[in-house]
Amino acid sequence: MTDVFKFGKKLFTFSVVAVTIVWSMGLAALVPATAYAETCVELEAGDLFKVPGGAAVYMVTADMDSMYFPSEEIFESWNLDFGDVTEIANTCFDMYEQATPAGVSYRPGTYLLKRVESPSIYVVLSGNQRQKVESPSALAALYGDNWGVLVRDIPSYYWSNYVAAEGELTSAVPHDGMIVRKTGETTVYQVMDGMLYEVTGLEAAGMMDFGGVKGYEVADLGGLAVAATTVTVTSIFEDPTQLGNMPDTPIATGGDVMVSLSANTPAAGDILSDSLANEYPQGNISFTTVNFKAGSDDAVVKTVKFTRSGISSDTDLGSLYLYDGDTKLAEYNSFNSKVVTFTNNSGLFTVPAGTTKSITLRGDLVRSDPSVLSGKKIAFGIVSSDHVVVDGGVVTGSFPATGNVMTTTAVADLGHVYLTSYTTFPATVKADEANKEFWRMTMTADAQDMEVRYLKLTMVGTIAVTDVANLRLESNGVQVGSAMDLSSNNTVIFDLGSDPIAIPAGQSRVVVLRGDMMGGSGRAMKYSIQRISDIVAYDMEYLVPVSVAKDALTTAFSLIQPETGDGTNVDSGTLTVGLATESPTGNIPDGGTNVEFANFTFEATGENVKVDNLVVSCNGSDATDYVDNLKLLLNGTQVGTTDTTLLCDDAATDSTTFTFGNTFIVPAGTLANLKVVADTNDTTVAADATFAMDLVAGSSNAQGQTTMTALSTTAETGRTLTVKSGVVSIAENASFGDKTSTNPTGTVNAKEVQVASFTITAGSAEAADVTQIQLSDNTTGQSANYQNLKIKNGDTQIGSTINSLNSSASTYSFTPATAIRIESGQQYVVDVYADIKSSATEAGNVAYAPFNYNTNAITATGVLTNSSANSSNSETAMQEQYIASNGNLTVTVDGDTANAAQLVLGSLQQELGTFKLEADAAEDINVTDLVVSVSTTDTEQGTLQNLTMYIDGEAYGPTVNLPLAVSTGTYWNASFSGLDLTVPRSKNVLITIKADLTTFDNGGDADGRFHAAMVYNIGSGSEPITATGNSSGASITGVDLYLGAATDADQVGNEMITYKTLLSVAFAADSPSGSATGGTDSIVAKFVVSNSTNVGSYSATLENFNLTIGNTGVSATAARTLDIYKNSVSTANSVASTDWGTAHMNLADTVISEAGFTDISISAGGSVTLIVELDTNDAGSDDKLSFNVNASDVQWTDGSTAAADITSVDGLPLTAKTLTY
After folding, report:
1. N or C: which end of the chain has fewer CB within 10 A?
2. Strand extents, DSSP E, 778-896
3. Burial letters for 193-217: b for 16+ Cβ neighbours within 10 Å, e otherwise?
4. Per residue in 1125-1138, pLDDT tens?
5. Can you count the helices (H) and strands (E) in the chain?
6. Angle at CA 335, nearest 5°, toward 330 and 336?
7. Using an 8 Å Cβ cutoff, are 1127 and 1166 in contact?
């Protein structure tokens, strides 16, 4: 029988056509055959079953009939488990007649149905019913916007499983069978008989938020009443048949188990013996899988007995094992008289309450001489309840639970692996060695390609399991599998199923075990393969596992280890002393207590190390400096006693010996920090003295705590430190400069302007805590100019605001809520702010410094010394300030204003000009009204309409039109009123003016000419801008409003000319350039003249076309002719011709007159190609001719009287194209 008949979820289908069975299994499937599991299992209502080789699963109804599951999805909608399926003999199948309906339906409310042949949608109701849906909107409300993914096509032969319900689903009211929850709430309901029943037990079942219960969230529960009783999770799934009268599911109680043959028991098949004597046959064969189902308590299974059946003998088998999945649980205790026994008083395995565990019996065919013959029949089963023993419980079930028959087949070329050269290992390792080789061996394959897919190694020795890490296997130098650690039972398992050790037939692989040492000094270890099942090799031809041999192909497996002795010994531990990277550098404070002088590291490897004593010396720059209260801190805790004084001279003549007893022990694999601290408040210590604390080399002053080996500490030198004062200093902040009339502090009435800035710097020896800052007026009181004085660090205010300043010179103190900590040598910036009064008396006067920082302005305390660190500065004036009366606004034409251009009548929002409004540094300027003037003539102003102001590409303010009457001179004014435009101080705002152009048919002027401008007199002496200072409130006018400069001048944009249409000129894509050959009628250039910019479908007429010609080296030997054709070269298409007189006249620009050019009319949207031919026979090697069109080379007309004979085209000149001969 092949894998086609193996049961599995992916093969879970059902066919109602009996012929399919005949075709797939053959006629023999219909003939009774010898079977080993034909005693009919007694099934009960609700049981699941299948037959051998079949893929369909059935359920027993309350009437003891059978219903099939049409699909895996239907099976899973009832929350069923394939592990609960019992396999019965084919001959027992007829005991269960087909029920009506024959198939199980989807659980109600889970999916939607439709017939393959019809578009109608149905919901599934309780009782195997279906109900037609009237409106898809109801489905969206009940099943979500993506309800379409829930629709399942039901074939006609399954449709009868669903009975038509009365009526149709017409509204979004949850229907019977649905599991629902209202949006925003947590309670889950089942709908039954038009009522809501709360579902309990979801959390206990691990099904919160629906989980395994397929349900839907709805916005409205449809007004359904909530029942007084509840339902459980179990009740939702209790009757997949929906025929009623289903009894409660029988389960064992207490610590009992129910035993049955698993539906996943291995299919009958061939197992391979080796026809050659003493070679290993197939091993690790799966014979039988049995289900153990626990009751309400955990069940501890202590004994399991399997009975062999079939035409075979006990001696045909080698070892037998119990497996839970791929985890080996036990090897057999005995195998006598067909019965194999597994027993463990502590329990072979435990089945958690309410669950099922599938246990598989595996085994090896025996290696023998002669080998096991072909044709042996082997099957195993549990024949009665007394062959299973549980701890304090009762065993029930379906007996005998016997698996399928395995038949032996002898082959002569079965693949094998045998192990040799396994005695290579290191005699010693260091306790901290990484990536160390621990063991190596050679694996050899013989007849077939082989894979080693599993290897379990047992560590024998005295090391702890934490003394090694990252154990990994290498095959010929390449890692296989993942890195692993030793488990608590001293074993490590390498599951190599996805990354095996591949060994081609007849070849070998050197397999190495590597790992990292993490300790274990004075201990030993070796690694071994203890049992034949600890290594699994796989024959890649026959696809079966084969047991592994030792030393040679025909040698039986036995313990494999590198030697019989201790194996690898781990060396004694070490202690490494060093200077910590964070050990102090630079300066230390004068007068400090508990000042850190040095930080040393002590690292133990392999074993814990105890340090008995250390000698500390001090090297100083002077001969008589003493430090006081010297002590050592191990990881923050003092060890040893305190030395009251230590001389730090330039010869390091003094030293102190510290002894520790048992207080200084460094654990293996850790890094300990030892700090040397002392006081610098001895009277002998002076500023700028230097000190360095050293550790003197020890002699057997440490000891390993496992091996008791004597160790010595090494000498280490601390960094040289300099004694410095800890006082703070204060200075004017150079990054905030003096203010002037061109860069003022602000204007009168300005709020919170910066008037000074200074820095506080902590001393280089220690951090300082600042508790007060004092400022003062510079010579006189500032009450006439400033108020609301405050200081800040960044955005954080320090102390309180001083609202009113004194009229006479005064001192102002600022006290922070908590002391400001400034680290040693670090700088702290303080900015000073105040409001400028509206009546400031110094407005417009010369700049001056209003504020000083005081004598001893900073009150501070040293963090280490706890001594005064006050600043000792003299009173010093800070930055000068200048108060302006108001700001200034300057108006200019922006450099990026629109270039002079030809515009087409009827086009929209054409750019006329861009103006820059720029505020000086005094204050923001608020603009409320702005006038843009347009220079034109009395008959043309109507050509522009809907003038619009743009800022940053967005329309801003109102849309306006020019007045009928001239405003001043030749200007018509466009007034933009009611603006809320702010020009920030020291910045600018660009305003761009655009307008719609009136169409020619509606009076737009062809050849109209316009200049946008901002003029200093818009009429009657009025200025173009109404603005006020944001802080000063002053009107920005007269000398404070510049048009261009202090001497006002009109700011005028470039000229714009309007036409009915426009022509453009460009080289044709195929116009020649580059390398060329001379000839009589050579095409030397092609141009495309287009009338594509057009609003009113107007034609344009090309009246003349000349060329700008460059010439290098060409000398004509006779008169030469240049011809221009339109679209193609023919006499009829010639539009102009010219020549260059007599011989030896060089080629030059053409001078074709209007009369000499045939007019070409170009329709709206059309174009004409001008082809230029020239006699170039005179062009010699490397001579050059270039062709271009300049701005004055083209003459055209847009058809209007006003714009006759237009002699310019935007975009000219072009970039010349050059021909090289």
Report:
1. N
2. 786-793, 796-802, 811-814, 820-822, 827-836, 851-862, 876-877, 883-884, 889-893
3. eeebbebeebeebebeebeebbbbe
4. 999 999 999 999 99
5. 5, 96
6. 160
7. no
